[in-house]
Amino acid sequence: MEDLSQEIENKTRQIAELLNDHKGQDVCVLDLRKFQIWTDFFVIVTVSSKTHMDGLEKHIREFCRDREMDVSGSPRKRTEDEWRLLELGIPPYGSIVVHLMSSSVREFYELERLWVSLEHVRKE
Fold first, then answer.
1. Which pLDDT band, with edges at 50, 70 and 90, does 115 fall under?
2. In this structure, which CATH number among 3.30.460.10, 3.30.300.30, 3.90.950.10, 3.20.20.10 belongs to the domain 2-123?
3. Exposure string (b/e) for 82-97, b if CB count within 10 Å is 16 or more?
4. Residues with Cβ within 8 Å of residue 89, at least 6 apart in sequence
């Protein structure tokens, strides 16, 4: 179990680095494993435009494909120009949720503040 937990953490860090390398702004990783909820990590990143969001999503999907990870998310809609959510599944178990957000949406919802205010969440 420890190896699997470490694998999920390593993949999360790699995704955060990938987003940072491709000009994602203010990349934030939240470790939610202690809550034993439906996901292990949130990765939150600010994008500069819809085109930037599309590009980051493409890089994430390629990363996952190369590592045999599942990617799910809602089909692209006009409303997703400001916030797109991708759930990355790591077989045999575990997941990472990536939030690609415009700066205005990220500022409005303040996900980091919401989750970090809860006890035991580690912001990396």
1. confident
2. 3.30.460.10
3. bbbebebebeeebbbb
4. 69, 70, 71, 72, 95
CA distances from 54 to 25, 80, 113, 124 (A): 15, 10, 26, 25
**Prediction pTM value:** 0.86
pLDDT of 53: 96
- Length of the chain in terms of residues written: 124
8 phi, psi to nearest 5 deg? -60, -45
Alpha carbons 40 and 50: distance in angstroms, whole number: 27
**11, two tokens:** 């993949």
Diameter of the chain by CA atoms?
41
CA angle 11/48/45 to nearest 5° reads 30
